[in-house]
Specification:
Blueprint (H helix, E strand, L loop, with lengths): L2 H19 L23 E5 L4 E7 L6 E5 L12 E2 L5 E6 L8 E7 L3 E3 L7 E2 L27 E4 L22 E5 L10 H5 L2 H7 L3 E4 L28 H13 L3 E6 L3 E2 L4 H5 L25 E2 L5 H17 L4 E4 L13 H4 L4 H17 L4 E4 L5 H9 L3 E5 L1 H9 L23 E4 L8 H8 L2 E2 L2 E2 L4 H15 L6 E4 L29 H19 L8 E4 L4 E8 L2 E8 L5 E6 L4 E5 L4 E4 L3 E6 L4 E5 L5
Parallel strand pairs: 10-11, 10-21, 11-12, 12-15, 15-16, 16-17, 17-18, 18-21
Antiparallel strand pairs: 1-2, 2-5, 3-6, 4-5, 6-7, 6-9, 8-9, 13-14, 19-20, 22-23, 23-24, 24-29, 25-28, 26-27, 26-29
Helix pairs in contact: 6-8, 10-11, 10-12, 11-12, 12-13
Keywords: Signal
Pfam family, one: Alpha-amylase
InterPro entries: GH, GH13_cat_dom, Glyco_hydro_13_N, Ig-like_fold, Ig_E-set
């Protein structure tokens, strides 16, 4: 996780949030609240009735003494709309009438005479500090903040919201084994950083052959220029990327082109702008009365404020968030950030943190069961990295788990062989029964870029030089990609990795904006790498042998190979990761003619393949030609 940077953000953002949430003139009069049961049909947030002319607004806030509803419908008065408290003291609600169904209304809750907060369940917020940087092209006709009327973030509600008419209602998701996921940060993918401009690049992604896009967090997070792992509102898409209907259209158009859309979901923690944090906060951290958050984080990798996933309130909230995105946006899967953090077992280092945790397993079985009850074919992907025995239990439940091969694969691409064995990419080494449960990758948003390290730290021998040599570095990327896509199971690539993106993750700060390099695509040497990725992806998707359970391999040393067998066909991927020529001696299992998917063929007089390979040279041989 991005701990140091986010901790700095946390201090700043919460100080700002507290100032914004305070009232303008000190303590204001508190309303007189009545006790009354929730009306039929009421739920967290807003429910419109009477054809949109009335709304029942509800807030879960146990233990609070007084709450009033304030907004444009009562000129932000803190006393005129005193909310009613349910007999158990948990819920507060009010029915506001005489609304125009076509009007957007800004509103907040005024709590205990000293706090103004937005609605945790709202689908849109207005931010007095950050909205001014959102262009009309990205978010047309954005409602103005009610300056001078209130402070802090406000919620927005509207009965007759713009609705999206879905066109592709029979999308069939790719099989887990055949998933090729493209992880994408909207902010750094196009200069316009919105869904429309991202959609304009869909042909590029279709040409690459990917069949799933994984969007880094798109629900409201603090600020605009973020990776999104500092979430504050969980039902509202972040306006910096576009409108609700623009996001729905993006997903719909992806479905129309055969591409699933996976959403990065951050439910390990929340940040200081969250009204759920602010409602139970002592100025430095959550208080023990919080229904959702631990007073202190239970694990050392936490940023923000740590959700307690053994709390019934947190479980309900989390299920509500999951169900909302599944049903309102037709999302195909969630990648859960820092899923190992869903624990109440305290730890101070990763050796303790990753140990088998029966409580954490129970939490994930529960959430997975809930998701599958709504949609049995939904992708559930965890960034877990826990003890292998724990991950096996989760995989047996049908959950998919991230598998980071970055370090070993990058050692291989740089030509440093001692730690270049990336056999961890094979599911059997994790004890998994199926390859479909292991999402392998050489790059994600969270690792240094492979080609940056190739160019900066690559090995050399004589005239064969990786460091500082773009052409050779790109060829090394091609070599590693041939192996990555030949390992059975779903795969993921990080945006522009297919073009050899070589700007450090730490450029402009780890989570800061990165140069958007579409000019790479017009560079012939980089286009060769893109075309190679497209070929490997096509081979994986079109030939079931690349998901074969019958595999042998040797990924140590300079000469590496993978051998896959299915029926009468065998595929052998062989390559030289050294910086000097090396001789390959591999038992292919059969003599005769072997076709190279890269072109040409060889004829073996015996089962043994013996050939000297130049540094960086690789082949994809098969007994029967691949499609």
């Amino acid at each position: 996780m991005k701990k140091i940077i986010y901790l700095l953000l946390l201090v700043v953002s919460f100080n700002i949030a507290c100032k914004k949430a305070s009232t303008d003139g000190g303590i204001e009069p508190t309303p007189t609240n009545q006790t009354a049961a929730l009306p039929a049909g009421a739920k967290d947030g807003v429910v419109f009735i009477n054809n949109g002319t009335s709304a029942i607004v509800t807030l879960y806030a146990p233990g609070k003494k007084s709450i009033s509803l304030i907004g444009e419908f009562n000129d932000w008065s803190t006393t005129t709309l005193a909310m009613k408290n349910t007999p158990d003291g948990n819920y507060w609600w009010f029915q506001v009438d005489n609304l125009n169904p076509n009007t957007e209304y800004a509103y907040q809750f005024y709590v205990d005479g000293n706090l103004k907060v937005a609605d945790p369940y709202c689908e849109k917020i207005l931010d007095p500090d950050n909205d001014k940087y959102i262009t009309a092209a990205t978010y047309p006709n954005l409602k103005a903040y009610p300056t001078g009327k209130t402070t802090g973030i406000v919620s927005v509600m509207q009965a007759n919201q713009p609705t999206y008419s879905w066109k592709n209602t029979s999308f069939s998701r790719p099989a887990k084994d055949n998933l090729v996921i493209y992880e994408l940060l909207v902010r750094d993918f196009t200069t316009d950083h919105n869904y429309a401009s991202t959609l304009a690049k869909l042909d590029y992604l279709i040409g690459l052959g990917i069949n799933a896009i994984e969007l880094m967090p798109v629900n409201e997070f603090e600020g605009n220029l973020s990776w999104g792992y500092n979430p504050s509102f969980y039902f509202a898409p972040d306006k910096y990327y576009g409108t609700k209907t623009a996001l729905q259209n993006f997903i719909d158009e992806c479905h129309g082109r055969g591409i699933a859309v996976i959403m990065d979901m951050v439910l390990n923690h929340s940040f200081g702008q969250s009204p759920m944090v602010q409602l139970y906060f002592d100025g430095s951290k959550p208080i023990s009365a919080s229904p959702w958050f631990n007073v202190d984080a239970k694990h050392p990798f936490n940023v923000g404020y740590d959700f307690n996933h053994e709390s019934l309130a947190t479980k309900k909230f989390s299920r509500d968030v999951m169900k909302f995105w599944m049903q309102q946006y037709k999302i195909d899967g969630f990648r859960f950030d820092l899923s190992k953090g869903f624990t109440q077992k305290s730890s101070t280092n990763d050796d303790q943190f990753r140990l088998y945790d029966a409580g954490r397993i129970a939490i994930w079985k529960d959430y997975n069961g809930f998701i599958k009850s709504l949609d049995p074919n939904f992708y559930v992907i965890l960034e877990h990295f826990a003890e292998e025995s724990e991950e096996k239990v989760l995989a047996d439940e049908g959950i998919m788990l991230w598998n980071n091969m970055n370090y070993n694969m990058n050692e291989a691409t740089m030509g440093w062989l001692d730690n270049s064995n990336f056999q961890w990419g094979f599911y059997a080494n994790h004890g998994f029964a199926k390859s479909e449960n292991l999402v392998g990758y050489g790059e994600s948003h969270d690792e240094e870029r492979l080609n940056f390290k190739n160019i900066t730290y690559g090995n050399a021998s004589g005239s064969y030089v990786i460091k500082g040599n773009l052409a050779t570095s790109l060829k090394r990327e091609e070599l590693s990609a041939a192996f990555l896509f030949s390992i059975p199971g779903p795969k993921m690539i990080w945006q522009f990795g297919e073009l050899g993106y070589d700007i450090s993750i730490d450029f402009n700060g780890r989570t800061g904006e990165k140069p958007i390099k579409w000019d790479y695509y017009t560079d012939p040497s980089r286009k060769v790498l893109y075309d190679a990725y497209a070929k490997f992806i096509r081979l994986k998707k079109n030939n079931s042998i690349f998901n074969s359970a019958n595999s042998t391999y040797n990924l140590a040393g300079g000469i590496k190979y993978i051998k896959l067998t299915e029926g009468t066909n065998t595929v052998v991927v062989v390559g030289n990761f050294d910086v000097v020529s090396q001789t390959a001696n591999i038992d292919f299992g059969a003599s005769g003619n072997w076709v190279d998917a890269l072109g040409g063929s060889i004829n073996l007089s015996s089962n043994s393949y013996n050939s000297t390979l130049a540094p960086g040279e690789y082949h994809i041989f098969s007994k029967t030609a691949l499609k």
